[in-house]
């Protein structure tokens, strides 16, 4: 059990550390690097931690899917199910603090070389869409070092730092991450499984921070990702339906293996989130504005150009006027599946900057324009069979949710009633479409028509929900 303790003042920390001992061990040797992770040893024979007065810590991982299905099945409406799913999965305040703490512990290591650096979380830890147990993406920021903006005299002598040079910024980033990765590996208490992935498009050091249980990715020189994080956060804050829908779609996708924690040809959570945002921009009236609109609302203080990419968008939420769309979460979830079940992925690209489909090259199975580096495709890794699976599952889920739209009446004695999955719960059960994996891609045809005729034929033959 761990506790994150915040002190009101620096002196208290100093006095705590003054009384803290270096462990005395006999059969191993210690790396004498002191971190702010302390262990509490109990020298009494009494087992203090088992005393009833000690509160049990809250689990830092999300509930298992079967438990979630049960929990959702007890809700009264699909809207409540979606809200309940978000509550069960979202990061807690303490988990969020733990993430900032791990960043600051890493900063202590990096600061040995770069005392003015900062390490900040980005990605789902802070963009509002993080699920308990998601990885911790960290950004080593070296841009804030003093002296960059020092004014040089027009003539005469002046002093400048001697600094090592390299041909490319990428090489500098790789070298810094390599050394810090080495230090994390050799000196970082609780940091295990360190992998340096320096040849990736965005070089990174990956490791597990055992005390917190976080899988960590440390990157540097990755300002655009910080901007995407801010943008996603903004969209999530504009309307509560955004976060609810993203959580539900991410959970659904994970349950069916559309997304995975293993890198591969899957759709990433980031891509999936952009797909949800795009869908919400396509509602009539739109629930969220386009990125171009957010850029047009920006003031001079919002201007941001990173490596020639225009990353400007408004940061003052009060300047954003939303349209009055009153669709319920239930409607939106059903429509989401319909929308992507019939989306012409072979011809069209998803573009949240314009809020409109754009034409794309047919050779790319899935094209989702990177919001800031507009020549890049965030789903470049995705292959055609993954797109097919996604479409097939959208078709199935669209049908399933319409079959299970109302909560079944509860039989049995109170508290003893059998819980029948319904609504969102049914979407999380293993896929019921036979051979969905091997299904060949269908030619573009409006799914709504297909589903309507399917429903019609079901109505004529059987009025019972399909739960066989
Ligand atoms: P999970 O970790 O899966 O919960 O979601 P995440 O949003 O944190 O995704 P991930 O850890 O894969 O990436 C972290 C952040 O990096 C994302 O939130 C984006 O801001 C950014 N990112 C991820 N993939 C891409 C990509 O393909 N292109 C760009 N430009 N940014 C990306
Ligand atoms: Mg992440």
From TrEMBL:
Pfam families referenced in this protein's UniProt entry, alphabetically: MTPAP-like_central (PF22600)
GO cellular component: mitochondrion
InterPro entries: MTPAP-like_central, NT_sf
UniProt GO MF annotations: poly(A) RNA polymerase activity
Record GO biological process: RNA 3'-end processing
Ranges where the Poly(A) RNA polymerase mitochondrial-like central palm domain occurs: 78-236
Protein name per the record: Poly(A) RNA polymerase, mitochondrial isoform X4
